[in-house]
């Protein structure tokens, strides 16, 4: 049968490659930390689309004791794990054991069926030594055990699946342990005889061999900590002696294959080593880098250094253990010594590098001469895999690498709906792809752990690593594919992550009169008057860092500066809000603040003079209700409908001859959903909007010739598990609820059935007359959108739906906002299909950041380019009637309850300078270029003048700011942006 293994250079034992020098301290591989540890979070998490080579080996794994069962069937002898789990004192939960496990010994056809359905190219499994040689020696040969593995191997080959065989996976025959186990040097020859038999018996069909699985675990956990069989607790000397024997046993088995079988069988032999990635606690501190390197040398290098470098232990390990031994008054190091002949015999005894990897740890500089112990919590830190693969490339002469184990456990309550495992595979496999595609690491195969839930060693059956769920309460041990099995099948089918249609660029242009805008909100940028946010912000401990809008960006006094940066941005429109309490301090027309009204006159006139045309967008209400109205119930009091209408009438009469673009209320969902009576508030908001719309339509439209609508916000929602109908239904409910609460009455008439069902009879009803008055109160669909969520059903809340984010999506400075551009196009199509394809004006879209200020905000440029591309796709490809786009926000401002800690701005506002200067970020250039091009010109059409930067000196910034440790220091400079 054809194999799925790429060609590997076979090395004859007498023609070893040039011996690599021993590792320095720290090793030269410290370049990996220098290369990667200073990556920004954006660079680290950016998803990479691409595919692996044609012959990439996709596999799954298992091991004999974990899956086979039949612990004493057909003459099998006892292993050390049989003995350990049968002890009454066993600490394994529920006294679990592998006596039956998945019963693969009797259910081989079912295992082969799963493998065939997954379309894997390889299957890694181990041989039970005591099933073949019950007492560990050839003289006890059990033919029925041999027959079982023949059936397995033949079954795999019949399905065109390459067997990847591990000769020893921790289950030593008990009879051999009775003679000292791996502490006994005689085990070297005994193991070699077992390997010799397996090579001779199965090697005509098996072409990929691993001698040991995780010898580090055997030595340290088995003979040092005593956690696993044979449960020897002697960390001072036993692990080093055992490891010494394991290395020599591996080398001898390798040479046996090389001398007797390679020429006729043409297979490969290696050893499966486990390695975590170790990240320095502080990469800028040399001793911490040394500590991380030492941790790698003690775990991975303990075995890889002799085999792949120079036949000897790493110098870091020899020095550390030797020095400690000397301090302890020992005559020689506790670390054994290889003779020169042994070094030559060991060096180069692997045809490829087999790596088991699960997690990443932080290394600290501590004086220890023992390996790092295992942690109880396996953290999903996918970027560590890429760095480890690069470290192996640098440290061990760029070998071919097979990832022979990688996976994550979930608790036993998780049966087939394992979205956490999907995220794990999605991120880890992508990091392997980055290492291959971007870094040139020779990654040749990936093996997912594991084929199915099985006996998980000291955890028994309380956790599961499987792509398939096994019901261990059922004697038939039925297997059920999990969500992760479906996902992994697609990865194999696609050979990685080819660029999806969602992620492909689109070149083209928007309509000629497309609206390009940016936005602010009154309370967020101006010195404010008495409103509910003003009171909230002055309540102790309510706002992050006690930030408030008392000064904010001081736009009240900086009209000219704000308009200048708008001109530089090249927007055609500017969306801002009116502060109700600035013009009507008590919320009514009893007292008019002419000074406040004059500010808006000045702002509108300055904008129009700057040719920000043809009209200015004004939001009548952006959450800053006058405190006097809140004192009488705010939006819960139905009288506010009339008060809002009167306020709108006043503003239309004073500014309407200049303003042609109105928004009544911004994001009514967020206004309603924070109070104690959300449905009452929502009801009043809808009626208030309708009254303001009719007022403008009846009294002002003919003369002012403007348009008016409401702005509704919504995330897009996808099912957490697309193969689960309950999740699909939950995702639909989320979108229907977020948008439909307000859009359905305004665009279709009355609340949607979803709203009625989810409100549990608490939703007020509109009268037939109210329905008639509300329906159709729009001139366009104002829409705010930022992110996408993954939905799943829950037994509580109005919707019965919870949401999470895909861990592969890029982060922002806001925990709720993940970069997921594809959702934008989908929700625009949802609006088209559900609300009659109305004209859509996107009134907010943007991304935040936190932490030290970096004017090179590449993540924001990336966000705008990707999201606007999705808008263009909706417009050009789907026929969605998109009329405009608004970037949130013009400048860093007060982000409501998070204060100034989250920054959405295209312009940075230096709040440590009393003048509050506005400084352009890099995203200004990207957004202004998109505006100039009215989309994305096709590079194939040649240079486009819209891509030409402005002449030098057209817009200068006199001060840039270096921000570190929350201290802002002015740097005297003059720089064109």
UniProtKB/TrEMBL annotation:
- Asked if Hydrolase is a keyword of the record, the answer is yes
Gene Ontology molecular function: any one: beta-glucosidase activity
Family per record = Belongs to the glycosyl hydrolase 1 family. Klotho subfamily.
Report if keyword Translocase is assigned. Answer: no
InterPro entries, per database record: GH (IPR017853), GH_1_N_CS (IPR033132), Glyco_hydro_1 (IPR001360), Glyco_hydro_1_AS (IPR018120)
Subunit and interaction comment: Homodimer.
Q: What is its EC number?
A: 3.2.1.21, 3.2.1.45, 3.2.1.46
Which residues participate directly in catalysis?
405, 844
Single Gene Ontology BP annotation: carbohydrate catabolic process
Reaction(s) catalysed by this chain, per the record, are: beta-D-glucosyl-(1<->1)-N-octadecanoylsphing-4-enine + H2O = N-octadecanoylsphing-4-enine + D-glucose; beta-D-galactosyl-(1<->1)-sphing-4-enine + H2O = sphing-4-enine + D-galactose; a beta-D-glucosyl-(1<->1')-N-acylsphing-4-enine + H2O = an N-acylsphing-4-enine + D-glucose; a beta-D-galactosyl-(1<->1')-N-acylsphing-4-enine + H2O = an N-acylsphing-4-enine + D-galactose
Please give the name of this protein. Answer: Cytosolic beta-glucosidase
Which keywords appear in this protein's UniProt record, sorted alphabetically? Glycoprotein, Glycosidase, Hydrolase
Protein source organism: Sphaeramia orbicularis (orbiculate cardinalfish)
């Amino acid at each position: 049968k054809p194999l799925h293994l790429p060609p590997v250079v076979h090395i004859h034992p007498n023609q070893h490659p040039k011996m690599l020098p021993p590792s320095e301290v720290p090793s030269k591989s410290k370049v990996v930390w220098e290369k990667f540890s200073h990556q920004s979070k954006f660079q680290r998490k950016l998803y990479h689309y691409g595919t692996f080579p044609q012959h990439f080996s996709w596999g799954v794994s298992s091991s004999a004791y974990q899956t086979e069962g039949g612990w004493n069937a057909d003459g099998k002898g006892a292993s050390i794990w049989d003995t350990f789990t049968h002890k009454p004192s066993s600490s394994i939960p529920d006294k679990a054991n592998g006596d039956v496990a998945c019963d693969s010994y009797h259910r081989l056809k079912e295992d082969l069926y799963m493998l065939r359905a997954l379309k894997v190219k390889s299957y890694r499994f181990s041989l039970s030594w005591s099933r073949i040689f019950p007492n560990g020696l050839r003289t006890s040969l059990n033919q029925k055990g041999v027959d079982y593995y023949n059936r397995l191997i033949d079954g795999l080959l019949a399905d065109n699946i390459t067997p990847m065989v591990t000769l020893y996976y921790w289950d030593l025959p008990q009879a051999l342990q009775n003679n000292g186990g791996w502490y006994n040097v005689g085990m070297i020859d005994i193991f070699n005889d077992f390997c010799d038999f397996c090579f001779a018996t199965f090697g005509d069909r098996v072409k990929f061999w691993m001698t040991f699985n995780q010898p580090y675990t055997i030595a340290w956990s088995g003979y040092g900590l005593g956690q696993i069989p044979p449960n020897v607790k002697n960390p001072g000397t036993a692990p080093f002696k055992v490891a010494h024997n394991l290395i020599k046993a591996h080398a001898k088995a390798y040479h046996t294959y090389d001398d007797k079988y390679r020429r006729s069988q043409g297979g490969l032999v290696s050893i499966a080593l486990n390695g975590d990635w170790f990240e320095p606690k502080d990469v800028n501190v040399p001793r911490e880098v040394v500590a991380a390197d030492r941790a790698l040398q003690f775990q991975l290098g303990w075995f890889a250094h002799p085999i792949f470098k120079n036949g000897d232990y790493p110098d870091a390990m020899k020095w550390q253990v030797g020095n400690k031994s000397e301090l302890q008054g020992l005559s020689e190091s506790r670390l054994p010594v290889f003779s020169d002949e042994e070094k030559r015999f060991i060096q180069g005894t692997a045809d490829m590098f087999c790596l088991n990897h699960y997690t990443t740890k932080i290394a600290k500089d501590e004086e220890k001469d023992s390996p790092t112990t295992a942690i109880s919590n396996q953290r999903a830190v996918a970027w560590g895999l890429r760095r480890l693969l690069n470290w192996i490339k640098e440290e061990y002469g760029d070998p071919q690498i097979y990832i022979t184990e990688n996976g994550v456990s979930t608790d036993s309550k998780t049966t087939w709906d394992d979205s956490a495992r999907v995220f794990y595979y999605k991120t880890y496999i992508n990091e392997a792809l980055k290492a291959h595609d971007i870094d040139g690491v020779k990654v040749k195969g990936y093996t997912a752990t594991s084929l199915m839930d099985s006996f998980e060693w000291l955890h028994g059956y309380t956790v599961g690593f499987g792509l398939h769920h096994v019901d261990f309460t059922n004697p038939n041990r039925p297997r059920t594919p999990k969500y992760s099995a479906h996902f992994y099948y697609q990865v194999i089918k696609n050979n990685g992550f080819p660029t999806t249609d969602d992620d492909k660029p689109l070149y083209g242009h928007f309509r000629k009169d497309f609206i390009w805008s940016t936005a602010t909100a009154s309370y967020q940028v101006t010195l404010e008057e008495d409103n509910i946010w003003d009171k909230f912000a002055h309540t102790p401990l309510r706002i992050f860092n006690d930030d408030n809008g008392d000064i904010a960006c001081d736009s009240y006094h900086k009209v000219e500066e704000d308009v200048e940066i708008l001109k530089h941005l090249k927007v055609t429109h500017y969306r801002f809000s009116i502060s109700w309490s600035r013009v009507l301090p008590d919320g009514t027309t009893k007292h008019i603040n002419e000074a406040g009204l004059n500010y808006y006159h000045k702002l509108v006139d300055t904008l129009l003079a700057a040719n920000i045309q043809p009209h200015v967008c004004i939001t009548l209400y952006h959450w800053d209700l006058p405190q006097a109205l809140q004192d009488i119930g705010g939006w819960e009091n139905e009288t506010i409908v009339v008060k809002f209408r009167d306020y709108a009438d006043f503003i239309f009469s004073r500014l309407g001859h200049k303003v042609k673009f109105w928004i009544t209320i911004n994001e009514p969902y967020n206004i309603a959903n924070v109070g104690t009576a959300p449905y009452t508030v929502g009801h009043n908001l809808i009626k208030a909007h309708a009254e303001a719309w009719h007022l403008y339509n009846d009294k002002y439209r003919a003369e002012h010739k403007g348009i008016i609508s409401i702005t509704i916000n919504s995330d897009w929602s996808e099912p957490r598990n697309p193969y689960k109908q309950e999740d699909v239904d939950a995702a639909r409910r989320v979108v229907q609820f977020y948008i439909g609460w307000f859009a359905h009455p305004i665009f279709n008439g009355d609340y949607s059935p979803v709203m009625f069902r989810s409100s549990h009879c608490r939703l007020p009803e509109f009268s037939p007359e109210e329905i008639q008055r509300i329906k159709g109160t729009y001139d366009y669909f104002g829409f705010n959108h930022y992110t996408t969520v993954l939905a799943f059903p829950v037994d509580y809340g109005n919707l019965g739906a919870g949401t999470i984010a895909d861990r592969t999506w890029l982060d922002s400075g806001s925990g709720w906002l993940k970069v997921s551009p594809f959702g934008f196009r989908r929700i625009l199509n949802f609006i088209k299909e559900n609300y009659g394809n109305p004209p859509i004006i996107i009134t907010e879209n943007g991304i935040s950041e936190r932490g030290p200020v970096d004017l090179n905000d590449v993540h924001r440029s990336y966000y705008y380019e990707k999201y606007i591309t999705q808008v263009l796709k909706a417009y050009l490809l789907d026929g969605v009637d998109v009329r405009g786009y608004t970037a949130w926000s013009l400048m860093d401002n007060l982000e409501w309850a998070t204060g100034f800690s989250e920054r959405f701005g295209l312009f940075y506002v230096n709040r440590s300078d009393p003048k509050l200067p506005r400084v352009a970020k890099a995203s200004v250039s990207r957004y202004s270029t998109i505006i100039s091009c009215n989309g994305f010109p096709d590079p194939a059409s040649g240079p486009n003048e819209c891509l030409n930067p402005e002449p030098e000196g057209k817009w200068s910034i006199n001060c840039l700011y270096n921000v570190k440790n929350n201290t802002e220091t002015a740097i005297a400079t003059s720089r064109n942006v």
